Amino acid sequence: MTDIVTRQTRSRMMAAIKSKNTRPEIALRRQLFALGFRYRLHPKNLPGRPDLVLPRYRAAIFVHGCFWHAHDCRDFRWPKSNRAFWERKLRRNVALDEATSRRLKEQGWRVLIVWECAIRHAKPGDLERLGSEVAAWLRSNRSSAQFNSESHRVDELTVDHQQPGRAAHSATCEPSRPESQLGTAADRD
Hints:
Strand content: 15-25%
Largest sheet: 6 strands, mixed
Structural class: alpha/beta
Number of domains: 1
């Protein structure tokens, strides 16, 4: 399938996609600020430059876009054009996410992933509940978690990809699906 815009137009459009200060990120920051939390933004000295860092709680929070991090939700679709490129890129993003989480944990940080869909599809009151759930996680001793639109809550029960099929309340902050479940572009259509 050919692109409907010129290469220059596509390049300009892709360059305009922000990686910092996105709407979902700002919405989460507002909720946490209203609850009295203070944080640092995008520190260069931490692996992956987390979106929010709360040093007092040794917590790093990432607000992941569902497309860019291949989240298995209703917002993610494999692109129809240039499939091989996008598959490589998105699989690499997922692998980098895993490596970043691992490095942060090795340095003693707790990691929270808030997926874009948790904020984008929020109904009235959901953002406040999200803020409260994140606040509860920050105050807890839980090491890592994810929040997405399907669970509507912080979910620490994840699959340990080192030992398939084993559920663990461990310090995992894996992508929502392991590499083996990403499938090919044809599988997602």
